[in-house]
Amino acid sequence: MKQEATVKPYLIAKLKQEHCLWSYDNDSINDMPDDVLIELVMLYLDIDEINMLFSIFSYKKMKKAWIENVVAQGERYYNLNYFFAWYYFHAKRPRSYVKAMATRQLNKRLAA
Fold first, then answer.
1. What share of the chain is helix, strand, coil (3-state, %, to 5)?
2. Is 78 found in the same domain as 48?
3. Which residues of the chain carry a pLDDT beneath 70?
4. What's 68's DSSP letter?
5. 2 and 51: one domain?
6. Closest CA relative to residue 60, chosen from 82, 37, 36, 35
7. Do 46 and 74 share a domain, yes or no?
8. Is the pTM of this model over 0.70?
9. 2-32 pLDDT, tens per residue?
10. CA 53, CA 94: separation in Å to the nearest integer?
11. Domain carrying residue 106
């Protein structure tokens, strides 16, 4: 928990520096849900910062946030998602895995 107390503020500051939090109220930035932080770091920051996420969040939480928040965005981030599937989540067939997860997320949203 101590590491999380230093890593989360660093990542939020880095996202601010990259102008990724322009739509957030300054008072609510520190109360950002973990899945949103994971999504923004995966989309806008570098491997070093993504690795920091893995140091404070479980593999399971990271994978869930990735699938629900990043993969669900579909084709726009296909190459990035392919990389994540291969490098971080060790999918045996990353391209097929990303397509399957994107379809699953789309079907979930259509059913809701």
1. 80, 0, 20
2. no
3. 1-2
4. I
5. yes
6. 35
7. no
8. yes
9. 677 789 999 999 999 998 888 777 777 878 8
10. 21
11. 58-112
